[in-house]
Amino acid sequence: MSDQGSKNPFPLPSEVESVPGTDGWQDMYPYYTHFQPEDDQRFWFCNSMHFANPMSAFDVITAEVPYHGMGAFTTRVFAFPTVLGIDYRILNGRVYITANTVTDPDEIERRLEIFQRRAGRYYENWNEIYVQWEQRMKNLIASLDDIKVPELPEFEDEQVVMKASGIAQNHYVREAFHRCIEAFSVMWQHHFEMLMLGYGAYVVFFQFCKKAFPEIDDQTVARMVAGIDVLMFRPDDELKHLARLAEELGLGDIFTPDGNPDVILPAVGQRGEAGQRWLEALEKSRDPWFNISTGDGFYHQDRSWNDDLSIPFSALPHYIGLIRKGETLERPVKKLKRERTRIISEYRALLNSEDEQLAFDQILGLAHLVFPHVEDHKFYCEHWLTTRFFNKMREFGALMERYEVIDDAEDIFHLHYTEVEKSLATIMNSWAAGTPPANRDYWKPIIEKRKKILGKLADWQAPPAIGPMPEKIEDPALQMLWGITSETLLAWSTPAVGKAKNEIHGYAASAGVVEGVARVLRDISDFSGISDDEILVCPITHPSWAPLFSKIKAAVSDIGGTMSHMAIVAREYGLPAVVGTGQATQRIVSGQRIRVDGDRGIVTLLDE
Amino acid sequence: MSEHKGDGELGTDAVSWFRDIGIGDSPQVGGKGASLGELVRAGIRVPAGFVVTIQAYDQFMDLVDKSGAIRKAIGMLNPKDLDRIKVLSGQFKDLFAQTPLPATLRKSIAGAYRELCGGQSDLPVAVRSSATCEDSAEASFAGLQDTYLWIRGEASVVKWVRACWASLYNPESVSYRLRLSLPEDQISMGVVVQEMVNARCSGVMFSRSPTTGDRSVVTLEASWGLGSSIVSGEVTPDKYVMNKVTGGIIDRVVATKLIQHVPDPSGTGVQEQSVPPEKQTEPCLSDDEVKALLGVAKKTELHYGCAQDMEWAIAHEDEGIWLLQSRPETVWSSKQAKHISVPQKKAFEHVFSALSGKQN
Lengths: 608, 360
Fold this sequence. Notes:
heterodimer; A: alpha+beta
């Protein structure tokens, strides 16, 4: 990289080279996601926070639809004064985005007037609207569950004749598919309905703290705001409850680290009344708490605990072991609350004047008002509804497999949703015509090719940003959503000056320094592979991984900020954590000794 | 080493033990001495010692400059007239050197030193100035009056107490006072005589950030040996920033520490020495020690009710923290606090100004 300050440190989109063996990768994605020559004029950064891996053709919907919602609510619904929506493109399978802003003072003033009226209405009635929001979300999930993917029997149900409804099943193939896509779209609209206002309130508190206490670390600001009874902790709490119940009922010996439900469930069932009681408790916990995803809601392969019970079950023996040792599993909620109150009041006392203290009270009060939604919306949106949505798509995949349009139901995820619709059209006609779907083998070689391309793209090192670097970035939206500031850009654009070769830098997420043996976990299927007191190294953690935190002694992630799930959980467990390293899983191997410095955000490889 | 020595049997008005004085005694013992007494009262671990009082100084000065004519002349100098300042300062020093110390004073100082030694012969002590206007919240006087380290023996102690007094009239001190228009007839000086800590490492500490003024952090610098190497800027120390509220270490920079100040092998004074290569890049504090220092900083600040600028040491012989001095932080406390935010009619109005790119 050049050391000339004037030279742009990032490649232009048109300068980024293709990955060998991925010719035609663009065809996986819609034309409007392709970079065009004029895009070289704009600055883009890789949204690796949400999209860490190359996107399969179907999963592009998890970029497309959210950006429709996000921009709509900032640009059009609330008229945020400076914040417009997001443009996105796909390059070598990764999602690059650019944030649009308003800079003209008159225009900002004009938008501010609208924003004050509209945002004010939401802030003033926040809790009331949030209660309605939750109800709307539950209704939406129920309506998604109600969608039936037609089975296309040989003869139509006689009811169609008896009731003279006049519509046959093949019509409902497309209708049901549309309804699923619509439910997903409505979810993402709701997702941003309150969220951007929530972030806005948080960012005001963040800025206040940074001004009043210039050296305050992000995690301490987060600690003053973060909730303690957060929905995302519930699934893990339920699991602990089930572990305790199993032990009380004398069922503890049934649970093995592989967590195989096909073995465990029948074994519990054979334990008479005790077994029945446990199974009833399990059913209660599953709905809705096991609708938690092993991911963040952006990839079809992230399944929920309900989809794969071996994930929660494999954590049970460890919890049961802790109970037998007499340890308390429950989160020390009261202590955490007391500590949060203490931190807040000590910072408050350090402020310079009574006026400042009153402003602090107001701003923090607002942050506390909005934050339950900021923290809890994910459970409804990215977890509960999204895992159900992908499962519905699997039902369509099964239909397509049955009609031999694809080889395997899961292959549906290698088609864009508009391509799925095309192939459903051939099925609709096939059923009507009584012949095989037209050009039935059309998608199969395309899918095979896409699988190969995705495999190759996985190893590509995506540049964190592309295009001409702006002189400064002061956009509060970029800051609040992605933590991107002028300093971030500088860090990205300068080679690791002053960093030792054996160091990996990230965000200091949870304080403390420990050394130990690393265990690299790429996904939840490795879950039982971690031993006590190892250091977890993973691309990103998800709330469903919470049971791991009682085993490990520190945590490192590729992706995430100081408000990420890993950061919050690590702080609660008092484990040092470094997040957002970008490269920990690539540079660290399991078994290697590492030092995690959660005070400074540095991971040191000790025997490299 | 113990915090309290001597039971004051020779007690005269010429010396005051730390344990008997507090911040209110500043007019009698000078700022530094009074502050050390106050720290002892606050339950902070301070090496034992006493102050040669202002009264002792005044008594001697009346012998040096009987009519007060020279001091008066100095007070009327133009602060920019460095040549005249040098001339008068030189005249004063000559007179000073020619004037013998009254026997009663000598006896009091030597007696107090012997008491401080306890059973030990020639306990090493630090002799440090404690002027009446020094270490105030308004003016730092940093480094203008002298400090002498690792002084042993009665005669030596007496000699360096005189040297401290004399330093009040070196040209730098005189011009500093003139520049700030401090009234010359109110200048006086106590001298602190304090047991030396045989420091494994030592350093300075601010109970707010010296760079940003942030009151929620404590900034700490540490290096091997005596703290004089840091104060004089001869070494780049290790640096820590700690969060006062959460107790976390926010930042740490382990520097390459090339030199250290250690007791002179002759038994008196200090010398500069190279740090052995293997220790140069080794942090000189453990995390537990950093946290203990944070505790001392918080306790001291809480006691005084304002941000403090402190010097500390950790001895070879034991593990605890010794606080060597503490004074009010002067740079940030004299600045107009930056305006952050004022209450709004409704809490959410803060969002409007912040998200439209305006400050409220």
